[in-house]
Design a protein that fits this description.
By secondary structure, the chain is mainly α. Helix content is 69%, strand content 0%. It is globular, with a radius of gyration of 19 Å. It starts with a helix and ends with a helix.
């Protein structure tokens, strides 16, 4: 293990709070799929993780980030992804961006809970796919049998939504409406809700076609920002 990895781990350890280390697994509902069996917590808050990432992202190599990402401690992995996002956002070199994308795709097995996915994928993979017309990267993940790969693909389209493009989101959501895992339903509904924030008519048109086949969790998220009477109509199936 290199000195920089030990420095990052030490900086996080100093910020750890034993009470939070016990609280976090309960807060994140361990055992329902959000975290893998054996994941451990130091008890470091997200703002503190971001502060460590801000200090070290420019000094640490991708190889060392790989060591942190393979850690059993959630905070090591999330801090590593915060640093990776900063590296991606700060560089202007296309070759380095491609290297970061390859690193991300080669370490997917460590990006396997909703906190890690939602903190990194659309800022790295979604942005890269959008800016370089590499939608096939996301389509391949969306077609995977691995639930976390599907979620990465779906949430990756958040960058498309931010740019006013909804087609890929609708494609992935429609393809995964029958997925059995509740986390996919939440991800799908969340993305549709954001689509509605940008263009409510676009969401209504989509719902009018697909709402009857949507899992209830997905539907609830999707209609969360609509007027109460419209929401009730969808929930009661009376639209």
């Amino acid at each position: 293990m290199t000195n920089i990895v030990k420095e990052v781990q030490g900086a996080l350890a100093v910020l750890s709070i034993p009470e939070k280390a016990e609280f976090f697994p309960r807060f994140f509902k361990t055992g329902k799929g959000e975290y893998g069996e054996g994941d451990l917590f130091l008890g470091v808050t997200v703002p503190d993780q971001r502060s460590v990432a801000k200090e070290y992202y420019s000094k640490i190599s991708l190889e060392d980030l790989g060591i942190l990402l393979s850690s059993v401690y959630h905070e090591h992995r999330l801090a590593a992804l915060f640093m990776l996002v900063s590296k991606f956002e700060k560089t202007k070199d296309p070759a380095i961006k491609k290297e970061i994308i390859d690193f991300y795709l080669n370490h997917l097995k460590y990006i396997n809970n909703w906190d890690l996915v939602d903190s990194s994928c659309y800022k790295i993979l979604g942005r890269y796919a959008f800016e370089n017309q590499k939608e096939d990267l996301l389509r391949k993940l969306s077609a995977s049998e691995e639930m976390w790969h599907k979620r990465i693909a779906v949430v990756g389209t958040m960058h498309y939504i931010k740019k006013g493009s909804y087609e890929l989101t609708k494609e992935f959501v429609t393809n995964n409406l029958k997925h059995s895992h509740d986390l996919m339903h939440k991800a799908n509904g969340w993305l549709l809700r954001e689509m509605g924030n940008k263009n409510e008519k676009e969401l209504i048109d989509y719902l009018n076609i697909h709402y009857k086949e949507m899992p209830r969790t997905c539907l609830r998220y999707a209609i969360e920002k609509l007027d109460e009477d419209v929401r009730q109509d969808y929930l009661k199936g009376r639209v």
